[in-house]
Design goal:
The protein has helices at 49-76, 82-101, 109-143, and strands at 3-7, 15-19, 26-28, 44-46. By secondary structure, it is mainly alpha-helical. The strands form 2 sheets. Strands 1-2 form a two-stranded antiparallel ribbon.
Length: 145
């Protein structure tokens, strides 16, 4: 158990013990690789409910945009295989489990429902695209003889 002591050297002395293992909040590991002089942050626990909500909404919006961008690119690009689509489909299922298990503690029920609906839409589109890809592959094999 780590304990930190904060002291203010002035007329009035303020000291506090912080136990970071008992703080409830959303835990984040920053992935910023920019080097700078100062404190290096390896883990961050966000405690404020409004800040947690803003962080999670931004994070989910970016992830959904990435899925939709891949989906649109796969529709335009003929080089996308069903294996690539299968990997993204597995990732959407994993992301859905993260939303249910981790994000549902911090976000509103209506927002979670809407988010799961959007992820399910992306899943269904990926499944449809995989079926179309497999169907066209089977037809091209059948024509070769």
């Amino acid at each position: 158990m780590k304990r930190y002591v904060c002291e203010k050297e002035n007329k009035d002395m303020v000291s506090c013990d912080l136990d970071f293992t008992e703080i409830n909040g959303f835990k984040v590991r920053p992935r910023n690789k920019v080097k700078y002089d100062g404190i290096e942050v390896s883990r961050l626990t966000v405690v404020s409910p409004s800040l947690i909500e803003n962080v999670l909404k931004r994070k989910t919006k970016m992830k959904l945009n990435a899925y939709l961008e891949f989906l649109f690119n796969s529709l335009e690009d003929d080089d996308t295989t069903s294996g690539d689509l299968g990997l993204i489909l597995d990732d959407t299922k994993r992301y859905k489990a993260i939303i249910i298990n981790k994000y549902s503690k911090f976000l509103d029920v209506n927002y979670i429902r809407e988010l799961l609906l959007r992820v399910t839409f992306v899943e269904e589109e990926l499944k449809l695209r995989i079926r179309m890809e497999n169907k066209s592959f089977n037809q091209s094999i059948g024509r070769g003889r």
